[in-house]
Amino acid sequence: MRKFELIAPCHFGMEAVLKREIQDLGYDVTQVADGRVTFFGDEEAVCRANVFLRTAERILIRIGSFRAETFEELFQGTKSLPWEEYIPADGKFWVAKAASVKSKLFSPSDIQSIMKKAMVERLKEIYHVNRFAEDGDSFPLRVFLMKDEVTVGLDTTGESLHKRGYRKLTAKAPIAENLAAALIMLTPWNGSRTLVDPFCGSGTFPIEAAMMAANMAPGMNRSFTAESWHHIVDKRNWYDTVDEARELMDLQVETDIQGYDVDENMVSIARENARLAGVDKLIHFQRRGVEQLSHPKKYGFLITNPPYGERLQEKAEMPALYHALGERFRLLDSWSMYLITAYDQAEKDIGRKADKNRKIYNGMMKTYYYQFLGPKPPRKHAPKESAE
């Protein structure tokens, strides 16, 4: 089976979570850089990474790397790569995205244009043609330039992995599914513990938590660009991976996952998204304002993405909203709270300094993941065996 070096981009700050996920799938991580993790895998790994990874953005096959400080060096470096091993004569190929950091070449459109020309030149020589119809399968490429080092990856995923396929309807400022999953994975929560999102919006946190509790693979109900690349990944690997995902899933698991929102319309949207995800039986959604937040159980988790007050008219409402959240959290005296927000007065208005906080980029917005840690639940002792 063919071996590849695979690159998995992720949200900045989530690299350690993704690294652990990749290792749990059984693959060797070779490098962790800002916003991406590199690992070795075979054809099966391409499928399993796409279907099982919760926190990655996409899965790229690394075609090669080279240094380029000039456009001529970029052209020649690109032309030297073995494109014919991946792109057939009728393939449609283009540089879908170019990102440059601390490099002399920084114009994405120029980088994309020059690399496309270089690929065309090489493939014209290989396939002995003067032009390409490009009416076959799609082969999108992604390119990173870091300190003049060019890394070229072939995108096996297509639409970003955060698009699980369940979120047809969204809130005003939805959190990406893969970021929500990563934030849950940064907590000690597991499917046997209580989880409440008091600002659930379109339901992303509860739905991702329910999928984890049921061991449901996030990519099992969507398609991927590489499914049609039979010369690179045998289609049996895709069937086997989805079969594996179905065998691992347990929708009979008992959960206590709840999502509240003050907007009845958002509650309806969240319920529909949960139904589309196949986990509606595992979540209780309810119209409830934050000032009504309560729960009879102990040692639960609040995990949430409250409003940030980005709009001027909303900004005046933030102190009261975060103050109410702080008051209700204090009444849940054994609980932990994890919230991601760009609101800079969050700790002050909640009335408690976070035990930990972590800077995370939610898209281009700098946010903080505040972690208010509650006590650990007492250990359950195994019952003593009766003496014979």
Report on the structure:
- Helices cover 31% and strands 24% of the residues.
- It is α/β, with parallel strands linked by helices.
- The protein folds into two domains: 153 residues, VC0802-like (2-Layer Sandwich); 187 residues, Vaccinia Virus protein VP39 (Rossmann fold, 3-Layer(aba) Sandwich), CATH 3.40.50.150.
- Strands 2-3-1-4-7-6-5 form a seven-stranded mixed beta sheet. Strands 10-9-8-11-12-14-13 form a seven-stranded mixed beta sheet, covered by helices on one side.
- α2 packs across α7, α3 runs parallel beside α4 and α5 packs across α6.
- The longest helix has 20 residues.
- In the sheet with the most strands, the strands line up as 2-3-1-4-7-6-5
| Gyration radius, rounded | 24 Å
Order of helices and strands: EHEEHEHEHEEHEHHEHEEHHEHEE
* CATH architecture identity of the largest domain: 3-Layer(aba) Sandwich
Q: Approximately how much helix is present in the residues?
A: 25-40%
Number of E-state strands? 14
- Tally the helices: what do you get? 11
General form: elongated
CATH class bucket of the largest domain: Alpha Beta
- Quaternary structure annotation: single chain
Question: Can you tell me the CATH superfamily of the largest domain?
Answer: Vaccinia Virus protein VP39
Question: Sheet bearing the most strands, described?
Answer: 7 strands, mixed
Q: How many distinct domains?
A: 2
Distance between the termini: 56 Å
Stretches with pLDDT under 50, minimum 5 residues: none
Average per-residue pLDDT, rounded, comes to 94
